[in-house]
Amino acid sequence: MSPLLDVHELSASYGRAQVLFDISLQVQPGEVVALIGRNGAGKTTTLKAIMGLVSARADRLTFKGQSIVGRPTYGIARLGLGYVPEDRRIFTDLTVAENLEVGRQAQRGGRSPWDLTRLFALFPNLAEMRGRRGGHMSGGEQQMLAIARTLMGNPEAILLDEPSEGIAPVIVQTMAQAVRAMKAEGVAVLLSEQNWAFAAAIADRTCVIERGSVRFQGTTADFLKDEALRTETLGV
Amino acid sequence: MDLSFVAIQALSGLASASSLFITACGLTLVFGVTRIVNFAHGSLYMVGAFTAATLVPWLLEFSFGPVSFWAGILLSAMIVGLLGVVIEVLLLRRIYGAPELFQLLATFGVVLVLQDLVVQVFGPQDILGPRAPGLRAPVEILGRRFPSYELVLIAAGPVVLGAVWWLLRRTRFGILVRAATQDRDMVAALGVNQALLFTGTLFLGAFLAGLGGALQIPRVAANTGMDLSIIAECFVVTVVGGMGSVPGAFLAALIIGQLQAFGILIFPKSTLIVVFLLMALVLAVRPSGFFGRPEILASGHAVGIVSRRPTPYGRMLAAIVLACLAALPLLGDAYLLKVATEILVFALFAFSLQLLIGVGGLVSFGHAAFFGLGAYGSALAVRWLGAPMEAALPAGLVLSGLGAALIGAFVVRLSGIYLAMMTLAAAQILYAVAFQWVEVTGGDNGIVGIWPSAWAAPRDAYYWLTLILTAATVFVLTRVIDSPFGYTLRAARDSESRAEAIGIAVRQQRWLAFVLAGAAAGIAGSLYAFSRGSVDPSLLGIPTSVDALTMLLLGGIQTIAGPLVGSAVLHTMRDQVMPVTALWRLVLGSSIIAMVLIFPRGLVGTIRYWREDRA
Q1: What is the mean pLDDT of chain B?
Q2: Which of B185, B190, B194 lies at the smallest CB-CB distance from A102?
Q3: Distance CA B7, CA B321 (A)
Q4: Domains, in order of start, for chain B
Q5: Facing B186 at nearest CB: one of A72, A75, A85
Q6: Which is the most buried residue in A22, A205, B269, B374, by most CB within 10 A?
Q7: Considering only the top CATH level, what class is A5-234?
Q8: In sequence order, what DSSP letters do the residues of B198-263 get, joined into one string?
Q9: Which residues in chain B have Cβ-Cβ distances shorter than 8 Å to A89?
Q10: Where are the domains of chain A?
Q11: pLDDT at site B344
Q12: Is the ipTM of this complex over 0.95?
């Protein structure tokens, strides 16, 4: 089966400082892959580089078999690759409903589209605050809105940057449910995480990056078994 | 003052507030989404007025009636909207990522181009449009006659506000515009094609500018000075209201309309002064205007002089150039000396701006204020105190230094685009004062008979005097740039918050830079006054400020020699081009646009870049 997202030898630099060195990873349709590593390992940059938000070089970078190198960000999103940034970037002046409207895209393929009813079933909190401004929401609520907003574009895969960061533990549970629900809908997820427990609970496969390079790639079960590697790379 | 008079003044204040709001609303919308302050917005307003003043009478020929009149107004606004689309696609699209200084300059290039094109298309005469059918007779309000068309204008402002509100709140386009106003990258990451969104916004913004201009035709004749006068007012409205905020623009326009209507009773000559005081007051309390938010982005774009060590090679080059310049009078060509004197004066003027922009990162768009203050300071000392040149030169220095201290005190509270617009507004106020305070400044005619003392009167003697003063000031400023004070300015330029965190009083340092740069520009202005023998308000005008910026940009912001070379090139170019074509603004404007697009580093900067690239 050809991978949905295929990253081969991706490198990126900020000015003269190279931060990614030949990152290669694949995401299959409907699969959840965790990208884990310490602070500053290059997780966020990897996701941004795939979205075309930082300039990068790659030997091969394809989504659904189409090269997305040098494609404008909106074009990548239109192909069906969603992105939820680390800092959530909710439009604080817009209401919840308006935030969702910005994310809406024309339907792609035969898949049943996400709409407000289904999203509000997934995130019941949001249904109650439809008219509230994004700026007046808690971190966890903003995180839900950010995911819901991206789902409005009916993506086939989502890049999810640190969904558990800075939110209450009880919301982390909601996030885990949300990721499982997306997987159940056939949406592939590539998520970056520092919270290993969270990642281990939902990821099919795990990719560990360290100082801009891939250190390990395999099933989450295999990574769980390799205690020495885990201690060395994560300190847990 | 009786009640009916107050009512009529208030009503006419409301009418001008409406017109101002309609135009400024377009400017603020475009800024909100594209982050570009479109200098050419006033030109679009002017094109709207000229188009309507030509189109509406033609339509009235076919069928006379209100339908033709209003259809003509709307059609003119549509045409201007399309012109906005052309500007977006050809120019703005290429400079969204550029530093704001370049954006302002490029759109000012459009201003120059449109000034010449309007004359080519519509002719040099003012055109007074027809009065609106059905609205010719005045109405009577409290026993006074009031033009009924003004009542329609009063209604037009709220109607446009309502329509824009509906568009922004109730349509997908509007929601996207508001989202993009906040976070453009995120909007793109959600699959929205920004290019279309920006083009659409430009159409809307230009449409509103065109509408604002077209609605003026029964009141004011379309004329070629409309563009710069309206843009200064629009800047005040958007800054006071908060950049990007439509309700803010409405509120600001209302207040300014009333201030202008009643300010006439206090300062009959210049209502702009009242407006300026309002702006200073509002910005002192709320640096981002009524409903604006503090600028969060912007900072990443600082460009300027980097640290460097003076090389013996550089010193030798400077000495050789200086020696050649000192020997220039030996050639004995009087015209050459006149041109060389002016080049030196403008080199000093541009160099003083370098201290603010290149070193301090303070994009001043009103540097002509200090050049003009220096010139007027000397001229006024000669005219009213009978001072000789030796006393009048320092008088210019003192006046410009004081002016810079005063303006700087307000301006250093701001940053980025607010600072640029505030400095521009300050220069425009001084321009208005010089223009309207006829008894003291001579108004439009200026002051004549400002000649040097006998010993400096010969061309070569005056040239040497200019050379000595210019070289000395440039030398002092260079030392300042390389001093610890220069380093603190650069630190604040690169990161204001980090500079404050290590204990630099950023505002105080910037204020000092303003005073220094203002005083140096004042020396240039004084020298210019004595070289020409006269002063006039154009020395304080926007084109003079832009000249300095163009020279700076032409030479390159990152270098010390940049402004000096830029001044020589621009002056020589103008000297060659102006006599051969009547369209020199078109040429200059296109050159500025081309320069921003092709040589964003300037001439000296590009040469250095190539050299370092090879090394």
Answers
A1: 88
A2: B190
A3: 66
A4: 3-231 (no CATH), 320-614 (1.10.3470.10)
A5: A85
A6: B374
A7: alpha beta
A8: HHHHHHHHHHHHHHHHHTTTTTS-B-TTHHHHHHHHHHHHHHHH-TT-HHHHHHHHHHHHHHHHHH
A9: 183, 186
A10: 5-234
A11: 93
A12: no
